User: Fold this.
Amino acid sequence: MACQVQYFQHTDGAYEPAITQEPSEKPFSFEQLEKNVRFVLVEIVPKVIKLLLLIVPVLLRDFVQLFLPVKRKSINGQLALVTGGGNGLGRALCFRLAREGCSVAVADIDLVSARRTTEEVRAQFGVKAEAFQVDVGDYRSVVKLKENIESALGPVDILVNNAALLAMLSLSEGKPEDVQRIVNVNLLSHFWTIRAFKDGMVERRRGHIVAISSVLGFLPVGRTISYCATKYGVRGLMASLEDEFYQDGLSKDLHTTCVYPTGIKTRKQFVDLVQDLNLILPFHTPDYVANAIVEGVLANKVELVPSTWGAQSLIYIIPILPKSLIRLIGDVMVGKMPVLSHRG
Assistant:
């Protein structure tokens, strides 16, 4: 475990500015010009040449891989932890992972549902499965979860951060504690679980971390600010984590997958809401999405949109379109979004 350092300790009046005044503009000199040219020739040009020499084989390799069959890994015998595994997509993920031969730790704040999922997994697939109660938004609860899982089943190989609150609150809606709860469950929980389980994966040089973000982690939508902000946060967290594994020389052993679902037929209230708003949103069953996610894990996909080809294309294209065009699409396809908080 890394040494725990206390950050951000405050001392009144301790701020020290980096620059106290703007430097005065110096007149042109051949000495300064020579210095600049030397810097470009010694520091910049060699790096540009090296980049050009290395980029060709990299692009060629990536192009060839587009036409090669995807190499799937085996996760048989590994232990998968699924948060929010009692219902909906989490439950479907538990079944799909068990079908691959994984032991499953079903974690949920709803222990009754978690136990029901566990019993069905054992009965259908004959793998080890245990239910655990956890509040993923509470770091101490996550630490306790880690202790309980390792005591009952062993170390976690696949972490699936699925638990989330589908809370459609704008910025000024709900009580402050409601907003804090959304942030805790939808975003901070990813920090807590990854902190708890990542070090063991690094020591064993084996692991896969999956995060369920949302289509709203790519496309900002008004009236959903609290939810949308957390899903953008999950996207940034996973992209940074994947890059950190690369920098630490772990990219061949530890993998990440960030998932951006469109609509999933889970909670009735959510499906009713989308229908009432006349949103044109592709909906899929939890089994369909779970299967796509696990297939993505087996292929070590870093990002995944488990939906139609059209939805996949739209998600990646819209962020690069002009804002005026995006808003025109929204006006035509959605119209003016009403306040959603009264829907609970």
